[in-house]
Amino acid sequence: MKKLESLLQSALDPGVIRELRARLEVVRVERANRMRQAQARVLQLEEDVARVALLSRALAELCLKKGVFTKRELAEQLVATDIVDGALDFGLDPALTLPGEEQLQQRPAKQARRKAASKRKR
Fold this sequence. Notes:
Shape: elongated
Number of domains: 2
Helix content: over 70%
Number of strands: 0
């Protein structure tokens, strides 16, 4: 960075350098704001997932206790529901989250989302 700044100082007049520094600062502030917003969104999504997981577990446990279904039936239904979107991947396409929705006609969108998510994890 120092070498670049030195080169810029010798090649550009001070007014241009000040303008570039001001633009750089604006970009840094905008980036920091976007990062804060993204972090806040991630925290909100984590809280949402935790609430949905709690609700799912509570409902499953209540149904098991009341004899609505057995653990085996629940496991079979999980697999049957998972495959509705065309992939046995322990996830469900958001377009199919409501009961009674038919199998997706197009699976590539889900595959693209999964690939993008796996790239972000790397």
